[in-house]
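Researcher: Please translate sequence to structure tokens.
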Amino acid sequence: MDKQLGMKSNSLVIVRVFCSLAVLAVGTAGLAQESGQDIQAKFSSYQEKNLQEKIFVHTDKSFYLAGEVIWFKLYTVDASFHRPIDLSKVAYVELLSAEQKPVLQASIGLEQGSGNGSFIIPSSIASGNYTLRAYSSRMKNFPPEFYFEQTISIVNTLKAALAATAPATPVYQQHFFPEAGNMVNGLPSVLACNITDQYGRPAAANGYILAGADTICPLTIAANGMGRCQLVPTKGKTYRAIMHINDTSIITPLPAALDEGYAMKVEEGTDGKTIQVSVTASNAYNNADVYLFIHSRQVVKDLQTAHLQNGSARFTISKEKLADGIAQITLFNAGRQPVAERLYFKRPLNRLRIAAQTDKTVYQPRSTVALQLEVKGPEKPAPADMSVSVFMIDSLQPARYEDIQAWLLLHSDLPGRLDDAAALLADSSVAGSLALDNLMLTRGWRRFAWNDVLGNKAPLFQFITETEGPVINGRLTDKKTGLPKGNVLTTLTVPGENFEFRSALSKEDGSIRFNVNNFYSGNDIIVQTINAADSGVSIRVTSPFSTQFSSFTAAPLQLWDALKDQLLFRSINAQADNAYLIDKKRQAFVAPALDTNVFYGKAEKQYNLDDYTRFITMDEVMKEFIVDVRVRKPADRYQFRVVNAAFKSLFEQDPLVLIDGLPVTNPDKIMAFDPLKIKRIDVATHKHYLGPLVSEGIISYKTYDGDLAGYELDPHAVVLEYEGLQRQREFYAPVYEHDDQRASRVPDLRNVLYWQPAVTLNADGKQQLNFYSSDLAARFAIVVQGINADGLAGSTVQFFTVQ
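Model: Translation complete:
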């Protein structure tokens, strides 16, 4: 099956299951000896080895002007149960252009599966629709279709005059999906269809299925771009669809039918509590056993066996066995080979119930808005991780938002974009249920390949899971040959008063890896080899951001003449807001909780040179003051030996010598350095182990500002600005508690009144939040999102007016 999908087949592949579902050639004789329980055991084993994460992002809104701030909250959950997961400690967030080029990037620290950050939109940005995406390092081992993605609209009113943008000429694509994976001659089949333009936007259409000149059946495609029909293909006939979309007609051949195979039909049970699965097979497969395997997000839910009598079999599945959301139903033949598959969606019975109520519905400018929150699970108050945004709505910024429950249950496991998935999830009418099932038929994907499951193939993880903090990766090659250089001792330094220092030994493929737990943006890193014999090695540090992109292309941003007044209004307000509040906004940073200890802890000896008579040469300093270090010059080069405090003797090997955390490979360079630039000298009088680096004592020189103070770097060292963890920016808003504050002549033109990425609830699941309205007379939306420890997610939206 997997090999005939036209895509690379391995443990990291995303698999399309409804284009061509054919028999796997994976050792039929061996599989025929296995039981259904063996398939289940292999599947469960594979799932345990392939733990996956999902990341959902709640943004404060979806429409911005250049110069504004994008605020976002990250929710990280395990992909199977949707429970918050404390696995990855770093998430990567990017803003991509229509050409899938990163415009903004940030590394966000995660704690208990939660994190938050922000982007200041640069004044140089072009107007357009952008894609905000988020993922972890672990998620990079899987296709980028499983990253979080959301469209963000940005208008730069300062860069160029705005003009109405005509919509691009649509280029329609039509795809057909037999319910079980294939049409089989002589067997009745449900054939689903979807039609989209080049940007994935759905289109309505009407037409027919034809065999030659004969009309087989009509086909109607709804406004959501989906429809279905039923037919029984006949051997020797070819089928095509002729569809009419406005003034456009498209002709698409149907997938070719197999001469032999299986058909599977899934229907709701009449009792509303079961799912009925009907299987029909060609004569060649009659009077044989078949197995029905059902799982929800790679957690096994049911396994049944039936015998094909007169070419048919029937299964009944209890809905109670299924998890909320998407279930995958796979049919195996008697040889335990997958021969048919489709998706089924179980509507969620429960969600995190969030009540948000303001004390009024209409407010005056600069007045207090009291927001009462209450969160409940199915039966009782439910502590939850929550975020709140309050923003102005108009023709540019609608009240629509990415809903966390709809994204987790629908969007995160389906390819492409979904328009208003929350509305699709909420519509339980007959038409809504049909639309949801059509979605299952036309977007069938799974996160694994059956070849890997049945073959007990171990997953290959190219990218490490960052369980402690950022991991910096690189590669060493020979400068002359370009070949990888293994077994080379390499160091990484983040200079500073409390510097970071790490060591690593390159692997056979030349790869190196450094764990830097407390590394924040704004610092340079220095990577170098520590042995003089390795001076011929080239060092390349790799970016932590993904170089793989999904196939989605955001539709162009359309700007109409009717929106110019609103754009001008927003532009003037944004400029005024930045002009008057820029100083306060710049100061609104939360200082990270940094470890003030360096890797060797507190040194046994610390020498603050300002406490001594200052000498003009380092030779005098070392010999007169630093009594725990013996300085010699047996030949043409200085030599240091540290006193071993444990045995009251000198170590026999060279110590590790550092200046602001940078290894000094030639002692002559430090002896030639100006001692007046050194604030302190630490001496560790013990043997120290740091990864592969073993040192007999440590001598650490610290400059006054921790910036190396002009120390000359090794010419082979690599120095670069590396994207560490983002320093959190705190949302700023004026306070109007007193009359003099309300009477201030400084204009308050904020369109985002409140942003709180981490709401704390009391034991009753309640909390009151207070914020202030601005000077804008407008309608505002309050969006609250959250998830609890059991994976129950929910959101709500409320409105109020300022006049």
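Researcher: Any highlights?
Model: The first strand starts at residue 15 and ends at 16.
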